[in-house]
Design brief:
Elements (H helix, E strand, L loop, with lengths): L2 H15 L1 H8 L3 E5 L4 E6 L2 H22 L5 E6 L14 H4 L32 H12 L8 E5 L5 H15 L5 E5 H13 L3 H9 L3 E5 L8 H16 L3 E6 L11 H7 L3 E5 L4 H18 L9 H8 L4 H18 L5 H7 L1 H6 L6 H11 L4 H5 L5 H17 L4 H7 L5 H17 L1 H15 L1
Parallel strand pairs: 2-3, 4-7, 4-8, 5-6, 6-7
Antiparallel strand pairs: 1-2
The chain binds adenosine-5'-triphosphate.
The site of adenosine-5'-triphosphate has 18 residues, from helix 6 and helix 13.
Subcellular location: Cytoplasm
Family: Belongs to the DnaA family.
Pfam family, one: Bac_DnaA_C
């Protein structure tokens, strides 16, 4: 993402949200830069302004930006410098790019901004994350500290940061006096090094020891960094002694973090350690459905055809960020070209994402499985005969090829005895209709899909 690309997006943004909104809220923003971690920083006149834009237009902006720069994960809003200059952020430090807050951290604490969208309301609960969610909820109630620290861990993009921000939002809403400090382990280190450099260690210690709740994200970052670990250990102990709540996240369990001092490891394990499991199909579908609800208010006229969300939930199982990014891109493309969101648009706009998450299901495999199920020969499935006994299984196989592989319609047609892509399209549509009206076909297709994906 470059300043020029941001400039090029302006017209489309204006068309999406209307002249008035655009002039009031988007035009005053300026592009600052993008970090290696995919965080785009925009300069806003005030922190209220940044916060308003984040809450009301954040998803739309991310959608628009991702049409040009799919690697973008998040937008941070920086408050304009005194001279108004939009300086480039210093080299890829998350610390710089997130300094001023979407929801400013209280009392000049060196925390990172909280993402206004990461609340318990927007967190979808399913089997893989129910324990982590319940633990987070308990901590967010604020009562007496029962487990300290709460240690949340899990793979990339499974909701650790979302849950931490949700806890911070809720604690602050319940008790605005509370000092809740959220920052990444990287920022902790940065502050520590800065304090050393500026000979302000006393201030540093005092400040960290004065918070009521400390949240440190991605703690695995401090592994192998000896003096930062040491300082972290002292901060940790001082807060636990005062019975202050600590919440930590990492990408793996404490005993799997290499180069972590043993005394820190055992401290981290001394509270409640819960993991966020990889998502399952139901959770992914739930997240997509809840996201669609958010998008509906932004793009009220956009249609989303049946089967699209289910397809995405099946196909993109890597992490929620990728899943959300795919949906965001779909909405942006659909609004750009003024078309409904259907499987063709999915194939056109998400081919890279789909390729990356390609399951190893081949057209051959689908043809064989379907032929076997309907007890017909493979040669009849592919051959020219049009009798229903062969035609229906053939259409089902075509439908499954479209659903479970990222092959184009012409390619599928070629693999079914050199048929035209319109024949494939007709077949796919027919099965879509029949799935609505014929319970037996619907059941057969679902069973075949499961068998193929098993
Ligand atoms: N259960 C969920 N419900 C709704 N949104 C979710 C859920 N899980 C993850 N997300 C969304 O997925 C995206 C990635 O989540 P988050 O940043 O919390 O992941 P993370 O575990 O902290 O990843 P990383 O290890 O990269 O820091 C966010 O936009 C978040 O809102």
């Amino acid at each position: 993402m470059t300043r020029e690309q941001w400039g090029a997006l302006q017209e489309q943004i204006c068309n999406t949200i209307g002249q008035n909104n655009y002039k009031t809220w988007i035009k005053p923003l300026s592009f600052v830069g993008i970090s290696d971690r995919g965080v785009v920083t925009l300069n806003a006149p005030t922190s209220f302004f940044g916060s308003y834009v984040s809450q009301n237009f954040g998803d739309m902006l991310l959608a628009q930006i991702s049409t040009m720069a799919p690697q973008v994960r998040r937008i941070a809003y920086e408050v304009a410098a005194a001279n108004g200059a939009a300086a480039a952020p210093s080299p890829a430090t998350e610390v710089e790019e997130v300094k001023p807050a979407e929801t400013p951290a209280p009392k000049e604490l060196p925390g990172a901004p909280l993402d206004a969208r990461f609340t318990f309301d927007t967190f979808v609960v399913g089997k893989p994350n129910e324990l982590a969610h319940a633990a987070a909820k308990r901590v967010a109630e604020g009562g007496p500290v029962t487990f300290n620290p709460l240690f949340l861990y899990g793979g990339v993009g499974l909701g650790k940061t979302h849950l931490m921000h949700a806890i911070a939002h809720e604690l602050s809403a319940r008790n605005p006096q509370l000092t809740v400090l959220y920052l990444s382990a990287e920022q902790f280190m940065y502050r520590f090094v800065q304090a050393l450099r500026e000979r302000k260690m006393m201030d540093f210690k005092e400040m960290f020891r004065s918070v009521d709740v400390l949240m440190v994200d991605d703690v695995q970052f401090i592994a192998g960094k000896d003096s930062t670990q040491e300082e972290f250990f002292h901060t940790f102990n001082a807060l636990v002694d005062q019975n202050k709540q600590i919440i930590i996240s990492a990408d793996r369990a404490p005993d799997e973090i290499k180069d972590l001092e043993n005394r820190i490891r055992s401290r981290l394990q001394s509270g409640l350690v819960v993991d966020l499991h990889p998502t399952d199909y139901e959770l992914r579908l739930g997240i997509l459905q809840s996201k669609v609800e958010t998008y509906r208010s932004m793009y009220p006229s956009l249609e989303i055809e049946n089967g699209v969300l289910e397809f995405l939930a099946h196909r993109i199982s890597t992490n929620v960020r990728v899943l959300e990014g795919a949906l965001t891109r779909l909405f942006a493309f659909a609004s750009l070209v003024g078309k409904p969101i259907n499987m063709d648009l999915v194939q056109d706009s998400l081919s890279d994402v789909l390729r990356a998450s390609e399951r190893k299901i081949s057209i051959d495999e689908i043809q064989r499985k379907v032929a076997e199920h309907y007890n017909i020969r493979l040669s009849d499935m592919i051959g020219p005969k049009r009798v229903r006994t062969f035609a229906r299984p053939r259409q089902i196989a075509m439908y499954l090829c479209k659903q479970l592989t990222s092959r184009s319609l012409p390619e599928i047609g070629r693999r079914f005895g050199g048929r035209d892509h319109t024949t494939v399209m007709h077949g796919v549509r027919r099965i879509e209709e029949l799935r609505q009206s014929d319970g037996q076909i619907d059941e057969d297709v679902e069973m075949l899909r499961r068998a193929l994906e098993a």
